[in-house]
Design goal:
The chain contains six helices and five strands. By secondary structure, it is of the alpha+beta class. It folds into two domains: 87 residues, no CATH class; 62 residues, bsu07140 like domains (CRO Repressor). It is elongated.
């Protein structure tokens, strides 16, 4: 329990490789915030975690090994966050661009289909911003974080759905 079964440097390397692979997979296949997880999203994350655990730990099941892995994950996460804020190319790789979904009171169907958005979610977002129908919106934008911003035609205040809700899987 207290003796490492794998060299510490190997645990760090395994953890870093799996962490980066998981970040790439989330970026390619998308992710949602916890509050927006469907049953299928939850199953995917749980199964992925279970499948990745042996790749990270290898033959080690010690407490010091777990501490090394946890420390590595937190340091990697901090490093990715720090780099994302300071290196524009990393930000572009990790985040998608905002997408205009409607302009001048008309949906842009090609953009909606490309983002795989549901019409019901779009209508809900409009109502949450006090806009009854798309014809009353000057601009509707799917933001980088998955929230939908709505600019009403009436010159009212720009609304943005709270960050805790996501509508799409960023690519």
């Amino acid at each position: 329990m207290w003796h490492l079964g794998t060299p510490p440097l190997e645990l760090v390397a395994r953890t870093a490789i799996v962490y980066l692979m998981f970040i790439v997979a989330l970026r390619v296949f998308g992710k949602r915030e916890i509050g927006q997880f469907t049953l299928f999203d939850l199953a995917l994350v749980l199964l992925a975690a279970n499948a990745l655990q042996p790749a990270i730990t290898g033959p080690d099941s010690s407490i010091p090994g777990a501490a090394i892995i946890i420390g590595t994950i937190f340091v990697l996460n901090l490093g990715v966050s720090w780099t994302r804020e300071r290196v524009p190319i990393v930000r572009r790789l990790l985040e998608s661009e905002p997408t205009v979904l409607a302009r001048g009171g008309k949906w842009i169907r090609r953009a909606i289909d490309a983002e795989e958005l549901d019409d019901g979610d779009l209508e809900t977002a409009l109502r949450e911003h006090g806009v009854a129908r798309v014809q009353d919106a000057q601009l509707v934008v799917l933001e980088q974080d998955g929230s939908i911003s709505v600019v009403p035609k009436s010159g009212g205040q720009t609304g943005r759905r709270p960050r805790r809700f996501r509508y799409r899987n960023p690519r």
